[in-house]
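Researcher: Next sequence.
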Amino acid sequence: MNAPLKIAMPAEAAEAPKGYKLLIDGKHVDARDGRTIARNSPGHGFTVSHYAQAGEAEVEAAVLAAHRAFETGPWPRMKAAERAAILLKAADLIGGRLEEIARLDALESGKPIAQARGEIGGAVDIWRYAASLARTLHGETYANLGDAMLGVVLREPIGVVSIITPWNFPFLIVSQKLPFALAAGCTAVVKPSEMTSASTFVLGDILMQAGLPAGVVNILAGLGTDVGAPMVSHPLVEMVSFTGSTRVGKMTMASAAQSLKKVSMELGGKNGQIVFQDADLEAAADAAVFGGFFNAGECCNAGSRLIVHEAIADDFLSTVKALTARVTVGDPLDDQTKVGAMISSDHLAKVAGYVAAAATEGSSIYSGGKQLASNIGQYLDPTIIRGVTEDMAIAREEVFGPVLSVLTFESIEKALHIANNTPYGLSAGVWSASIDTCMSVARGVRSGTVWVNTFMEGYPELPFGGYKQSGLGRELGKRAVEDYTEEKTIQFHRGQRTGWWVG
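Model: Next structure:
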């Protein structure tokens, strides 16, 4: 073990935990059976918050509220400009509470506070972008069907949407889904992770303050079996938007298929950064460290595989190792921290198990690999593993921790083979001064996003999603609102119809 980390207890530790009730039909309510969930801070060890714990009865009430709001309420019937105004008001209110929300996410998830602030700022931008799409959503008109016919294609809101989000980016990921559903005129039932629900409940308060009608958004805390599963199977739910593991995604898809619900899923990733000899190696090394260890590697987009040309591997990895040694691991509430706490002790043990298994399979721990003792939290040293081969679990499976696996190649064909030799296809990166090389890799990698001479940048204007077992559909981008709509074709006939079938 390294020297123990000394984590200071924040002021919140001396206060009573924050309590959050369920949001159903515009009202804050307790669970009918009185159950609650307590959330302990993974970085500080004290109880941060507790939530009313929903079950099937609360799912039923929330879905019925969303259904009523859709069938008879004003939201789907508002002018787009009116919906956009409420979304913009919500964005302003989020910005006004940025520090509060960031601190909640940092305390509940263990992520660094500086990073959390960036995520909430990014969420504000997404809400504003969704508001702009509300006003630009449109149908189509076909006047080329003959003088007597006019074809009109409408986009109508799909209905009640179940939105299920994970623990690693609590506020950011719900902001990649909910504002677009609302912009389309849908209503929603939202289930955040039971480990990081607080900031989503704050969002619920913000939406009511912004003027969202009752029942349009309902928020439930609870377990996947008790809440997530019935949210997916409920007959009044028309669409499911899910972010989480591929394993649970498959279960979600199977359940939704029983009633042919529309599904949108962003799942796992095993993303590679490919580094060629002619790259800006200093920038590539920094991106390798960022891609591997950002959010403690608890990120579907993590660049968890570093695929390096064998001619530069030793020198390049020496630079990566030196940069890794400068990464600050520790207190999530310290502005200088780059890598905070792992989400739970069980998850820490799982990630450490991958590292131990890789060592027994013939690879070597080049840097890190140790659990960091702490007086109050759970932390893992950023880890680099060399000598990894494509058949190893750590090269194929999503580890979801601060672990960077290194593979080498001698040709562009081999690099592409390594990059694609995984069940996932979420993202990839390529580093080279050659536009031909970059284009060949970008076109050859089977991934939803490819970064060229940069890594893990995001913009609301660009769609995000994966190939293969990384998911279905796309979030963000100009078509994000369209995903929450159905197309309806209307055909108008002018004048007296001729050519009767039965004359």
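Model: The domain at 12-267+470-488 is CATH 3.40.605.10 (Aldehyde Dehydrogenase; Chain A, domain 1). The mean pLDDT is 97.
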